[in-house]
Amino acid sequence: MESLECVPEECWKSLASLESLRISKCPGLTSLSKAATTPPPLGTRHQSNLVDLDSEELDLSNYDESSGGNNNHHLILELHSLRSVDLFYLPKLASLPQWLLQASNLEDLSIRDCEELDICKDESGNNNNLILDSHGGLHHSLRSVDLYKLPKLASLPQWLLQASNLEDLSIWDCEELDLCKDESGNNNLILDSHGGLHHSLRSVNLYQLPKLASLPQWLLQASNLEHLSIRDCEELDICKDESGNNNLILDSHGGLHHSLRSVDFYKLPKLASLPQWLLQASNLEHLSIRGCDNLKALPEQIEALQSLRELQIRSCPSLTSLPEGMRRLASLTYLGISDCPELERRCKRDGGEDWDKIAHIPRIEFG
């Protein structure tokens, strides 16, 4: 379909019940329809419409409502029932269009491989201009957001930080992103106590973020967060707050330590010890620590994790022994240790110096 430049109007007229649209590998495609006067009757309020766009040349950022709309957008502007939007590999996309920011029923948003896209900018290219309507807009309805390979993304936009119903957030391979900064580049982002993503988040995945040096306040304040996975963040010190202070202790009345059930750390070279906020996670059930070369010890306070059922330690060669507190982890039913030569030796049943600390655990695996 390399010669296709636009989708003929006749196609849309016969698709009154269209729910899913995927456009892929059409390098010449610059328009969804040449007719901008009559939008196709797509969707009703009872339908869940998926628009899935994947085209090298499609540019969604140049819609001009004052001129009646140009070729690219009128098709989608009337889809008030949109539930899911995927934007994949759109190298011309520089900002998010207004029709997307105003999609008041949108629940799932995935944006991947858009090398020119800055989701903090409006269609005029200005920062801090994305002021959302308090009564409508995607920040009221979003449930899931997935951001992958957005090299222009340096901070999270207000529409995302204000997403008061957001449950799942995944951010992958955004090389300039600093989660602790707002759109103006300032640290110490303070969220509204009555709304924002920190009230609703259930799952957060942060992978390959080289500019991330500390955890942001909105994450530490996520009082309903159950799953946290942080991988391959070479500058991240999870024991420090945004001001660079160690030994972060969270408010006893709120924060992620009240709700966490599962935590996964992978390839965090600055992780030398477990943070206090994790040791405060009294409901934590699953803890996985892998590829953390500089982790030298588990603290005695690990005994505070009385809900912990599974502990996996892999490829942490500097970790050579277990604390006495392991004896008092009464709920622990599984311990997995691999690629930790000295630790494995000490935990062997026959003669291992640490065996008696873990002998009560029903299932222990090595290698």
Topology:
Blueprint (H helix, E strand, L loop, with lengths): L8 H5 L6 E5 L24 E6 L19 H4 L4 E7 L9 H4 L6 E5 L25 H4 L2 E5 L9 H4 L6 E5 L30 E5 L9 H4 L6 E5 L30 E5 L9 H4 L6 E5 L19 E5 L19 E5 L2 H6 L8 H4 L4 E4 L1
Parallel strand pairs: 1-2, 2-3, 3-4, 4-5, 5-6, 6-7, 7-8, 8-9, 9-10, 10-11, 11-12, 12-13
What would you note in describing this structure?
The protein is α/β, with parallel strands linked by helices and 367 residues long. The chain is 11% helix and 18% strand. It contains nine helices and 13 strands. It has helices spanning 9-13, 74-77, 98-101, 138-141, 158-161, 217-220, 276-279, 341-346, 355-358, and strands at residues 20-24, 49-54, 82-88, 108-112, 144-148, 168-172, 203-207, 227-231, 262-266, 286-290, 310-314, 334-338, 363-366. It has a 13-stranded parallel beta sheet with strand order 1-2-3-4-5-6-7-8-9-10-11-12-13. α3 links the parallel β3 (82-88) and β4. Residues 15-21, 24-49 and 61-75 have low confidence and may be disordered.
What percentage of the residues does DSSP assign to strands (E)? 15-25%
Based on CA atoms alone, the radius of gyration comes out at 24 Å
Order the strands across the largest sheet as they lie in space: 1-2-3-4-5-6-7-8-9-10-11-12-13
Regions with pLDDT < 50 over 5+ consecutive residues? 15-21, 24-49, 61-75
Q: Count the helices. How many?
A: 9
Spell out the helices and strands N to C.
Answer: HEEHEHEHEHEEHEEHEEEHHE
The total beta strand count reads 13
Class from secondary-structure proportions: alpha/beta
Terminal residue distance? 50 Å
What is the makeup of the main sheet? 13 strands, parallel
* Oligomerization: single chain
